[in-house]
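Researcher: Good morning. I'm working through a list of sequences from a screen, and I'd like to move beyond sequence-only analysis. For each chain I'm collecting a predicted structure so we can compare shapes side by side. This is the next one on the list. No need for commentary yet; just the structure.
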Amino acid sequence: MSTTATTNDDEGGTVPARDDVGDADAALVAGEAPPSRSQRLSRERVVEAALAHIDANGLAGLSMRRLGSDLGVEAMALYRHVAGKEELLDAIVEHLMATMWADEEIKQQPVHGWQDFLQRLAHGVRRVALAHPQAFPLVASRPTEAPWLRPPLRSLDWVEVFLRGLTDEGFTDEAAVAAYRAFTSFLLGHLLLEVSIRGADVGPLDVLEPAEHDPSALDPFPLVRRLRPGLSDDRSAVEFEESLESLLDRLTLVRTEHLER
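Model: Good morning. Structure tokens for this chain:
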């Protein structure tokens, strides 16, 4: 007859002890290889397992001990691949954004005009949110590669693609920045609401203070570097009024359409 033991996790709760994890210290004393050495780990495998854990249990349920249990290793084995939980969460965001490169519906430059280009990009981000609703709030809360970039385009690569696509289609620098602001505001607000309906915990978001940004990191992204002043300018009040005005204009059309029926 077997019994299920419990152990404290690094979040202060308890988690069932896995028989296949074992005791690394006892294994070493006995002259055996500890379980952490018998499992082949990589940073990619750790990140993917963490994402799967969040998908199944929610963001609050993730801890290094629980993740180690999922992978069949001691939690200390994970620290050879990620420095800690904070780095792991950042890596999950990077992974989510990287999946968009494999999405064949997204174009990295306009093919059928800028509207089609933005439609495809928006739907690509939405597919990420729908595939991983429990993890998507991380996209809103984790520090970006540059602190003045806005979610949900959480990488310099995608912001560069966005800006290059619009400027290639005749947008001025100022128009491209304005489009970037409106596009990200619309996407973030809508998708956070959508994933919250699907059970994601979106508040309070764990927003961290961004680290000091190294200007040389922008060297591979000439458009982002050139447009940084506009991208980092806080125009929240103006954007709110403009978005509200656009909404009221849309509601006027809706009202008229229903009156004419």
